[in-house]
Amino acid sequence: MKYSYVFFSIVFLLHIINTVFPSNIMTFSLGILACLVFVYSFIYANKLFKLLGASFFLIGFTLFWTTDLTFMQLIPMFADNLSMLTLLAVLPWMNSAVTAARFDKLMQNLLRGNVQHLGALYQRSTTAMMALTAFLNVSSATIAQDVLVDNLKPIHKKLANKFIMMITLRGYSLALPWSPLEVLLAMAIFITGVNYGTLLPWMIFITIIMYILDNVWGRWYFKKIPYPVQTDVHVSHKPIKKKLVQLISGLVGFLLCVILAGLFFEMEFIFIVTILVFPFATIWAFLLKRLRSYWTIGWNKWRNSMNGMHNFNVLFVTLAIFTGCLNASPALQFIQKPILYVADYPFLILMMIQLLFMVMSMFGVHPIATMGVLSGISAMLIDILNPLSLAIVLVIAGVSTVPVGTYGLVVTITSMSLRQSPYLITYYNLLYSFVFGFVGILIAYLLL
């Protein structure tokens, strides 16, 4: 397990080569290698992902016997989702550039700034969480929680915990719809074929709406509670402004690179992001004069991340088999029938998709797995909804479940950090998630 990253790296590198220079022999070989990745990772995956992976594999293999596919056609299917895994493999390098530049300290300074009440801190914390989550992902949640737990000690513990549970999950979710580093967004684009540049304005628009709604509510709800002044902490605003400019410049720069690459090159969005992450992060670290720290942090983060990819390896490889066999099986028609009955009511279909994500997340099913299931009927859904509307509802439905996913990663981290029930975290954020999902449904419906 210590050297798993070597094996995985070889597989992902071969996948990149095969994407640039397609070969039937290489595609078949990657199918065999992906199968080996699944078998090896299954040993080290946790129970939930073993259950999900085994279920998808068994259902997919059962469906295989109802199709006209041969084993020679089945083998390459194992590699169908290697693009998603390759993207996950390179993400730690961007995270490392942010850490090396000490942008994580930026959040600590922002959360320790002088504000008069918790309502003002709510707005500031949400903004900081959203900005850093775009690059740091889960790490931003742990940083924010550590600082807030320390700063809110003078406040009643139940109220402080409620504040942290809301800020952490909501600020985190607001960064996901538009970040090109978010796997749910990449997967929705992969399923629908929508151009990132076309989808991005709508993702930003929905994020702004939710940001305003949540911050107006948060400021009103918490403004009566005074925030303890940190008299022993002096925060200089000049370095903070400089760091903010650097962070925003990096974020905008990466977004522009992704959009321009998509315009000039006939490549999939996932592949574009994958090949841009490492060179962009390296150049960014160089410009920030943090290259040495970047290499040291990056190597350790990347290696540890690769060695810990077993859960996602199991999930994505088995999802590929499930989706491929479902699309070639007569069973697809039985699944399509209930949707065809309500084909004249697209708003109802959008609601059904949102509820499916919400219910599945509460039972511990990752939104990626739910999206994978829906990908099996994506062709029919696109005929009813259109690609852009489907992409919007898939992304927002998946992202809106993050604050209420009872067994999700961020909820679990928050639960362990605050020693609170994950169901309580779900309860506090349930209304927010429903509103978030409804805004996505409404925008998607208006674009039909």
TrEMBL record:
Q: Which residues form a coiled coil?
A: none
Per the UniProt entry, the signal peptide is: none
Q: According to the lineage, what is the superkingdom?
A: Bacteria
Parts of the chain that traverse the membrane = 5-21, 27-45, 52-76, 82-103, 172-193, 199-217, 244-263, 269-288, 309-332, 338-357, 388-413, 425-447
Q: Which UniProt keywords apply?
A: Membrane, Transmembrane, Transmembrane helix
State the protein's name.
Answer: Uncharacterized protein
Source organism of the structure: Gracilibacillus marinus
Taxonomically, what lineage is the organism?
Bacteria, Bacillati, Bacillota, Bacilli, Bacillales
